[in-house]
Amino acid sequence: MNARRLIPTxxxxxAVTLGLVALSACSxxxxxxxxxxxxxxxxxxxxxxxxxxxxxxxDHVSVTTLTKPGVEPHDLELxxxxxxxxxxxxxxxxxxxxxxxxxEAITQSGVQNTVDATSLTTLEKHGTEVGHSHDDGHADxxxxxxxxxxxxxxxxxxxxxxxxxxxxxxxxxxxxKGVGASLEKADPDNSATYRKNTDALVKQLGGLxxxxxxxxADTTTKTFITTHAAFGYLAERYGLTQEAIAGLxxxxxxxxxxxxxLETIAEHDKVGTVFFETLASDKxxxxxxxxxxxxxxxxxxxxxxxxxxxxxxxxxVMNSNLAALRKALGAK
Length: 332
Fold this sequence. Notes:
Layout: H1 9-17, H2 28-35, E1 40-44, H3 47-57, E2 61-65, H4 80-86, E3 91-94, H5 100-109, E4 114-116, E5 129-130, H6 169-186, H7 191-215, E6 223-226, H8 232-237, E7 241-244, H9 256-268, E8 273-276, H10 283-292, E9 295-298, H11 314-329
Parallel strand pairs: 1-2, 1-3, 3-4, 6-7, 6-8, 8-9
Antiparallel strand pairs: 5-7
Helix pairs in contact: 3-6, 4-5, 6-7, 7-11
């Protein structure tokens, strides 16, 4: 292939002997991977990047993800071995700001073909509340300005901007196009396949966008309560109001004032469901729901796929999210 960074096995073995590779030893599985020089070695930081790499790369890529199933991406810490193996990748796909440990390791890896998803679309500021304003004076978050309290968990490297772009099918399609172009550049011999797969995925994401538009067009309420502010882009896209228990950090705890405010909002906006997610604690969401006499359900931020996920991939889980929102919002 042209423009490849994969080191031939013999050369790598010699480098290990000379102590130039930051791995103490290579397992048999590692050796097998290095021999598959016909595939582009792609490392994805977490599931949304992994999905794009696999769908666009197809049979021409070998994809490794740094965030294993069941691990909360925001909390990821890389092992020395993972950090060292980053340098063996032909292409690294990541989302700058959401995983500080990954950002630092990528900087030190020396890999030239790194793709930051935040550079492929426009980021906005979202906080605990995003969407339409309330009659009782709650601030409208759709203009990109969140209330002061909502900044508690935001990643400083993003300057308070919301990184959850993959939960908006339109923005995710923009990222997919950029990833496809990057794979074409890294592996021009298979550019036609990457272009074809990108077009197919973008079309599928367009269908998902249409399903959300139609499915959420006529609902009893437009407000939903969720664990953390992951769904700001989705709320803006489809005319909804996200009321998050915490800020952008899924592990941050709400203040008593915020809990009381959510109870008031739930009554005012006829909210019947409090959503929790698969990779973060559901304790606070269930407590608020119990105190307010509300139901609970899962709204998955798709930061990872596990046995608890309501679907096997991004498309399936997003369709499950749509079904959950339609039920909670009283779609007609």
